[in-house]
Design brief:
The chain is an alpha+beta fold and about 80 residues long. It has helices at about 30-40, 60-65, and strands at about 5-10, 15.
């Protein structure tokens, strides 16, 4: 019985073995790993930051930035 865990490859969504036997994990292979690395290198992945007002308490700023009601709506991929 094969007990290796399989997860979807983050790049192509095909099943990928998630164990030490797969040197590219969580990716299915070298090509998908390279595609993901290129996306990071070209700043294809971005995290939205919400700035706080000047003089605001640090703890309050953290709470307001992480509150779902204060985050901008997600942008559509098909604009």
């Amino acid at each position: 019985m094969n007990t290796e865990k399989r997860v979807p490859c983050p790049a192509c969504r095909q099943p990928s073995v998630y164990s030490p036997s797969n040197p590219f994990r969580p990716f299915c292979g070298a090509q998908c790993r390279a595609i993901d690395l290129a996306a990071w290198a070209s700043e294809g992945y971005r995290v939205t930051a919400v700035s706080t007002t000047e003089g605001e308490d640090y703890a309050v700023g953290i709470a307001s930035r992480t509150s779902p009601s204060n985050l901008p709506p997600p942008k559509s991929l098909f604009q």
